[in-house]
Amino acid sequence: MKTVALVSGGKDSCYNILHCIKNGHEVIALANLHPPPQSIFNDEDELIHEMDSFMYQTVGHSVLNLYSDCFEIPMYRAPITGSSVTTELDYATTATDETEDLYTLLQTVKAMHPDIEAVSVGAILSTYQRSRVENVCSRLGLTVLAYLWRRDQAALFDEMIQGGVHAIIIKVAGAGLTAEKHLGKSLQQVRHQLFKLNQIYGSHICGEGGEYETLVLDCPVFVKKLVVDETQVVNDDNGDVAYLKLRAHAEDKDAVAEEWIDNIAVPPLLSEPFQGIFEDLKGTDFGANEPEMAVSPATVPELSIGISPTTISVANITAPNSSFISDEIPSIFEQLSNIMATFKITDPYSITSVTFQLADMQTFPAANESYKKFFSHPITKPNPPARACISTLLPSSCRASLSATITRVPDARSGLHVQGRSYWAPANIGPYAQACTVQEGIYLAGQIPLIPARMVLYKDEGVLGQAALAMQNLARVMDAVVVRLSEDDCGQFYYLIAYTSSLAAAKAAIRVASQTGVECGIFAVVLVGLPVGAWVEYGGVGINTRYVRSCTAGDVDEEDEFTVKYSKHDRIDRVEYGTVIFGSWCCDDIISEIANYVEKKTEALLSVSVYISSSVSDAQEVLMKLKEIVGINVCVEIVHVIHVVDKDCIIRNYGVLVRGYLD
Known about the structure:
The protein is an alpha+beta fold.
């Protein structure tokens, strides 16, 4: 894609440009925002060399006009006129915020280069920066390319040096960094100190905590290099921060060999433990990877609603079959809106997760367009719900079914909606987040085996390769949303479900998930199809142990007792959980299993999801008897699938996921 690169002069924005080129993109323009003339603030007609900004690096901007000569491509610059009006991590369009200056600047670039499709940004760990760039790019129809996102900073720092990025420190603001020792020094010269400070204080090796800023003087794609002519050290009033005022010029340099691109390190597609799991299972015979045919059910499942003090669960929302599926989806969302309104909930942001069933995955593009409209409502905030999209056996009288979980405490809701391409995990470009969290609960979107950097389906290693990559994608999302205030904090799964399109894929998905060591209910279902022809899609719900620990520790006096409580995953009041029950034979078999569970349980039920094999002929009987057991305030979701496969890779007739809360 033709790309405009956001540049600050720092190492990260420059190194991301190299990765854009490595991934086949063409950088045709640069863009930079700088402080306004100081005369705006007082009578002195000189530049501000550094200004407080949550969003932009401004130190060193006085020499950035030379970058057009260095890259030999046009550069577009504009002053920062806004301020940090909103400082929340996730950004919603806000007038006079400094983010809107970026929108205006990129509008200008698009007007001058209508063929631009993407924006390069050097974000590594800052959700604040990433969410704002993605907001702007989404509004302008541009793809974000952020290949440094969530990379290991130690490895990344060394890769920059080895990749030929020559940068110097031009600002210090972190413990252990001083003007006398570090300003003007190269990355190589400060490497030892930065790694040492990371060990002592936990500071960010790449400066993601604002510990320091850099200026790139040369890199492999520079046609000319920057030469510093003059520097002046400026200290703040407290002496904690210092930066350099710079004068420089661009100078011709020797041509760089074309082989430079081989020195740009790309992380392996599968990292540990998933590469190891793949190697361990390689050669396993999972059977023929062939789609299977099945007969669709005759009746449409009834609408069902479950209620808890903090959550509403809705299932089996369908609409009568019409000429166009784009007419059916609005009807489904109208029903959902009416249900929410009965509980005085009007904001779509209150929805935390959605399961979107289609009879035919070929109808997905049209259905998705209607889906988008529901979440483009003016009051919708950032981070739409997590979503799993699957093709199931639906009655001929309907082509779509939707189930949703809705929180009644929206202030406790947050999410992760990464829309930029990276090496981390697939971008979610559209109205669904990778994850939504409500207190300790983590609702995870379905993850298929897309290669994150290119957003194409991974096909090289069959069902095993797809299962390993899809599971890695899900695990990385889980890791990203966990709140870590101590080394004991982690994310754990309540349950995992593998949606698959063949028995071979189901067995591979079960084996891969089991070898990750997760301790939760795991099962797989074989479906009609998955998005983009994938064979595996993982979904599930997790828990953030930080909240469990903080809510149980206060009631325990001794450390050993706390450890026991923590290991048992004690939950605070009204927290949802997941239990998986299997049935192998007839209706009475699974109903008996559920009845035994309900009789012994200490939790209140919220929902029961029943995955029914196509070989079952008594689905309606299951539904009727199940309602008698669980009661009217429990949501019963019915999903007709081709096969259910348990954690031991045994084919079952039923798989039941029971969710509830502590009363």
